[in-house]
Design goal:
Oligomer: single chain
Number of domains: 2
Number of strands: 16
CATH topology of the largest domain: D-amino Acid Aminotransferase, Chain A, domain 2
Distance between the termini: 70 Å
Structural class: alpha+beta
Bound molecules: pyridoxal-5'-phosphate
Radius of gyration: 22 Å
CATH class of the largest domain: Alpha Beta
Helix content: 25-40%
């Protein structure tokens, strides 16, 4: 019997083999605390059970957001945290996780974590909602457990621009796994695209919808400038409803007076675009130098992309679109 063979091998192993002693982590954590259900915990003590629904079936939602240090003002600004927390609550609703719903409480918990770690520099933050049912079933909706992290982080991509491949993997669709929300399971799709792109010598991947329109990348939305028009795919074309995308749209319209086209984009429109850029909380606003080895524009950062990049980096510390209240001071003035 197979079971007996396995059992025999296991007991032989436990009697004869010396178990390896775990080594100390290679790199020390960059912060002392994480947050678990609103309580500060040591970085190493934030744990989830191995038989939880989240680990067995990939049920969970999260947010990724940024805070930026202003050296002039000696202040840290967290960017659109309330909007991210609202999306987290939306994500929970779509995948049916009975987690906390109060956006203000979630926001204050995260900012409290940053203060507890005394972080004064650019950073990346995460809020993750998992289902921690012991020996969980896929349809369990709770108990929900919330982890938050705030970790120092500089640029995600370098400033040299991205060589992008159109992936052979299709972007998942709202008929199967809704890309509109940040469900952890969605990231298998982007991961496959990134692995393929890296294998083929590219920096990043863009995925198309099942019906052949440009959707988005593994962790970023996409814009192009073509025939003098700024264009981006609609939220019904298999994309995350990106908060950076929304910020860029607002900045383009209000600060630059542009009329933006939100419409389906064909693959070959990218090949003949004057400018292409991707955007996301981690990716910020980053220019694309080529798509499938077809150079975009001059190969450098395009004029409109550069203006939007500057405006975005001003907005994150409250120097642009200040009336929107996007940049939230973390420390008392
Ligand atoms: C798949 C995907 N698309 C787009 C984005 C950009 O979204 P946001 O600007 O809200 O960070 C992200 C990043 O979170 C993402 O993971």
């Amino acid at each position: 019997m197979i079971w007996e063979e396995e059992h025999y091998e296991m007991s032989t192993l436990s009697e004869e083999a010396t178990l390896p002693v775990p080594e100390a982590p290679a790199s020390a954590p960059k912060v002392r605390y994480l947050l678990h259900d609103g309580e500060l915990v040591d970085y190493h003590d934030a744990r989830l059970h191995v038989l939880s629904t989240t680990l067995k079936y990939g049920v969970g939602v999260f947010e990724g957001f940024r805070a930026y240090w202003s050296e002039d003002e000696k202040q840290l600004y967290a960017f659109r945290v309330g909007d991210h927390m609202r999306r987290l609550v939306d994500s929970m609703r779509v995948v049916e996780i009975d987690g906390p719903q109060d956006v203000d409480v979630l926001t204050e918990q995260l900012l409290g974590l940053v203060r507890a770690n005394e972080l004064r520099g650019n950073l990346h933050m995460r809020a993750q909602v998992f289902v921690d049912s012991s020996d969980g079933k896929p349809e369990d909706t709770g108990p929900a457990t919330v982890f938050m992290a705030a970790i120092p982080m500089g640029n995600y991509f370098g400033a040299t621009g991205l060589d992008v491949q159109i992936s052979s993997w299709a972007r998942l669709s709202d008929r199967s796994m809704p890309p509109r929300i940040k469900s952890i399971a969605n990231y298998q799709n982007g991961r496959l695209a990134m692995l393929e792109a890296r294998r083929n010598g590219y920096d990043a991947a863009l995925l198309m919808t099942e019906s052949g329109h440009v959707a988005e990348g593994a962790g970023y939305n996409v814009f192009m400038v073509r025939k003098g028009r700024l264009c981006t795919p609609p939220t019904t074309d298999s994309i995350l409803e990106g908060i950076t995308r929304d910020s860029v749209l607002h900045l383009a319209r209000t600060e630059l007076g542009l009329d933006v086209d939100i419409r389906p984009i064909d693959r070959t429109e990218l090949y003949s675009a004057d400018e292409v850029f991707v955007c996301g909380s981690a990716a910020e606003v980053n220019h694309v130098t080529s798509v499938d080895r077809t150079p975009i524009g001059s190969g450098g950062v395009g004029e409109l992309t550069a203006r939007l990049q500057r405006l975005y980096l001003d907005a994150v510390v409250g120097r642009a679109a200040a009336d929107q209240g996007w940049a939230q001071p973390v420390y008392p003035a």
